[in-house]
């Protein structure tokens, strides 16, 4: 009976399916298999399009990132050519491959032959220069002498002193004397708005320094980059941690010939972890009398001076106590400009007044053919008056402002007192005139008798 009952059921099912298929074809409905295939193709196509769009978007973002980091710098070919030339001078024929971040840091690399200052060009600081030479330069030029455990080359040196004392110039002279590549580490080049890019730039700085060794990584204004923990964000803490990690030996081995050199005028603001890695610190003070003489002689060495002016240099050094090396250089420029200003004074005045003509321009052009007169003693005195030592102009203005404010305040106080006195005099005169017209005011005088005082209470006005 089961077989008998199943047969019609199967037959009925087949009949309905056939009818459904025929009805589906008649009504235009899509076959489920075709519908599934189209859905699958649409999903795959959408995934492919999404992947291509994401790839294009990532390429655009990466291009934007690199444009932000490039900052309109040199192209990779010119950078590589310049580095090849540096290595060729050292006898190295092969150029180590550089990644993108190393190429970016290579833009600021300075060839030691292009540095125009040496120890001989720095006046004074003889003891400091000698100690730095023994501590920093000898390990770079004679590495075989520093192989023992106790004579390992120093990895960090700090130069500190007031602004304008020549810390940056001393750092460049150190690189030139050691024939080391000079890599200035600039905070503006390292910081990036994309997370992780700053860490890659720091790592690239050390790896590039190793590939170009001997090299010096110089950080000017060290207190702004690696300052003590105050209000720093976690982002800057990560950058500092990355820098310390590479500096502490992971990125530089004992024979890497890489020196980190820092300069600051606020050594107390530097993180103690940084100071620990800079075991040697050298003060770069204001030049003393002998230093100022040496600096002035270097500044005026190739200039046209009168014999009196050249003999006046020691006297000028005595009169410039407290001047930094930068102040002395600016003063020397001011001395040399006096003769130029004398020649162009008439033309400059006409130019300012809008009265320049072709004839005056031609006259100035003719005067250019005549050499300038030598620098005189008077020019030196004029330059010294124009250029004060660092901060003196601001302090003088501050003292002048305080004195001027006090003077104005005293004048105002005197003015107020005179006005009050005149008002009081006018009021007393008015009261006096009123008293005369009305027979005088009530008398409060007594005759030293207590009895009279008690008996005359009726004459006392009521003040209740």
TrEMBL record:
Keywords: ATP-binding, Membrane, Mitochondrion, Mitochondrion outer membrane, Nucleotide-binding, Transmembrane, Transmembrane helix
Pfam families: AAA, AAA_lid_3
Membrane-related topology note: Single-pass membrane protein
Keyword ATP-binding: yes
Entry's transmembrane regions: 36-57
Signal peptide range in chain numbering: none
Region (Disordered), start-end ranges: 1-30, 434-464
Subcellular location: Mitochondrion outer membrane
GO molecular function, one term: ATP binding
Descriptive protein name: AAA+ ATPase domain-containing protein
């Amino acid at each position: 009976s089961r077989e008998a009952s199943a047969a019609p059921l199967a037959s009925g099912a087949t009949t309905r399916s056939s009818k459904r298929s025929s009805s589906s074809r008649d009504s235009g409905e899509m076959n489920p298999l075709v519908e599934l295939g189209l859905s699958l193709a649409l999903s795959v196509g959408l995934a492919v399009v999404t992947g291509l769009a994401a790839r294009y978007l990532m390429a655009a973002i990466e291009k934007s990132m690199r444009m932000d980091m490039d900052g309109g710098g040199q192209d990779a070919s010119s950078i590589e050519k310049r580095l090849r030339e540096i290595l060729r001078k050292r006898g190295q024929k092969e150029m180590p491959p550089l990644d993108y971040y190393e190429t970016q840091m290579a833009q600021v690399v300075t060839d030691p032959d292009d540095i125009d200052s040496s120890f001989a060009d720095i006046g004074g600081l003889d003891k400091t220069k000698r100690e730095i030479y023994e501590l920093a330069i000898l390990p770079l030029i004679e590495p075989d002498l520093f192989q023992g455990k106790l004579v390992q080359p120093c990895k960090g040196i700090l130069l500190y002193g007031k602004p304008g004392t020549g810390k940056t110039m001393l750092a460049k002279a150190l690189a030139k004397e050691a024939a080391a590549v000079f890599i200035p580490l600039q905070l503006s080049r390292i910081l990036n708005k994309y997370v992780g890019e700053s860490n890659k730039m720091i790592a690239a700085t050390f790896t590039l320094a190793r590939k170009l060794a001997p090299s010096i990584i110089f950080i000017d204004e060290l207190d702004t980059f690696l300052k003590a923990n105050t209000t720093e964000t976690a982002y800057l803490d990560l950058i500092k941690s990355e820098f310390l990690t590479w500096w502490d030996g992971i990125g530089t081995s004992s024979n890497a010939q890489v020196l980190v050199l820092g300069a600051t005028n606020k050594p107390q603001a530097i993180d103690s972890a940084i100071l620990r890695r800079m075991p040697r610190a050298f003060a770069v003070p204001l030049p003393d009398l002998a230093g100022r003489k040496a600096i002035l002689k270097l500044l005026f060495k190739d200039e046209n001076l009168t014999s009196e002016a050249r003999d006046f240099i020691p006297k000028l050094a005595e009169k410039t106590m407290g001047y930094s090396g930068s102040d002395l250089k600016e003063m020397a420029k001011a001395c040399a400009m006096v003769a130029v200003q004398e020649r162009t004074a008439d033309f400059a005045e006409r130019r300012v007044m809008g009265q320049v003509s072709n004839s005056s321009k031609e006259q100035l052009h003719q005067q250019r053919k005549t050499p300038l007169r030598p620098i005189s003693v008077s020019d030196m005195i004029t330059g010294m008056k124009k250029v004060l030592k660092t901060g003196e102009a601001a302090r003088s203005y501050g003292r002048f402002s305080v004195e001027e404010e006090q003077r104005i305040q005293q004048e105002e106080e005197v003015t107020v007192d005179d006005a009050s006195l005149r008002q009081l005099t006018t009021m007393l005169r008015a009261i006096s005139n009123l008293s005369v017209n009305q027979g005088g005011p009530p008398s409060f005088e007594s005759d030293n008798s207590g009895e009279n005082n008690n008996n005359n209470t009726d004459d006392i006005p009521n003040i209740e």
